[in-house]
Amino acid sequence: MGTEEKTIIKIMLADDHPLFIEGLTLMLKRETDFDLCGIANNGREVLDMLPVYKPDLILLDINMPKMNGLETIKYIKQSYPNIKIVMLSGYFDDAIIKEAKTKGANGYLLKSSQKEELIQTIRMVYSGANFSTPSHGDAESSDFNDSFIQQFNLTKREREIIQYIKQGLTNQEMAQTLHLSVYTVETHRKNIMQKLKLNSPGALMKFIVENQI
C-alpha cells in the first residue's frame, strides 16, 4: 500500500512592509503543507510574477504602492480565476470587506490575527470555503493577556506600538496614526526592546510571532 501524498499549497505573499513580510514568512515556513513560492511588494509585481510562480493562493495586502490590493484582484481574476485570494488589512471595515468580496477575493484577514486564524483561513479558502472574514471585529483589540503585561511591565502605549509593528507599519506611519513624533515612537520602540531584552527589529518580530502576540 502506498502512502497518500500531502497536498502542498503554493502561496504568494504581497506586502510592502519588510518586517511584516519577515514575520509572516517565518510563520508560513513552519507549516509543512505550505510552500511560500514568491514575495511581491506591490500589485504590479504580483501580476508580473504570476506566470512564473503560479501560486494556488495569494495573501494580498490592501494598501500597497503603485497598485493596491483591491485594484490587483480584478486583474488576477481576469487571467487566473482559480487562484484564491485572501486580503490582508490592519482594519475591520465593512465597506472594504464588501468591495473585496465583490471584486473576487475569497477571504479577508486582519494583520493582527492570531497565527492559528491565519493558517486556518488559508486552508479553508484553499479547500473552497465560502468568503472568510475575521472572527474578531475590532482591529484594535489587544491580544495581550494580563500575565504577559505583568511579566514585561509593558504600558498601554507600548502594547499599542507592538500591535502596529506586527501589522508592518514604519515608525513614520505609526507616528502619523498615533499623532506622535517619530522620535517618540522610536523611544517607545527602544523601551519595548529593553523590556523584552531584544537587540534587533528582526528579533522583535520573531518574538511577536513566536509568542502569538
Give an overview in words.
The structure is a single chain. With 213 residues, this protein is of the alpha/beta class. It folds into two domains: 9-126, 3-Layer(aba) Sandwich (Rossmann fold), CATH 3.40.50; 146-210, Arc Repressor Mutant, subunit A (Orthogonal Bundle), CATH 1.10.10. Helix content is 50%, strand content 13%. It is built from ten helices and five strands; from the N terminus they run E-H-E-H-E-H-E-H-E-H-H-H-H-H-H. It has helices spanning 18-29, 43-53, 69-79, 94-103, 115-126, 146-152, 156-166, 171-178, 182-196, 201-210; strands spanning 9-14, 34-40, 57-61, 84-89, 107-110. It has a five-stranded parallel beta sheet, with helices on both faces. Strand 3 (57-61), helix 3 (69-79) and strand 4 (84-89) form a beta-alpha-beta unit. Helix 1 (18-29) crosses helix 10 and helix 7 (156-166) packs across helix 9. The protein is globular and about 50 Å long. Mean pLDDT is 83; it is low at 136-145.
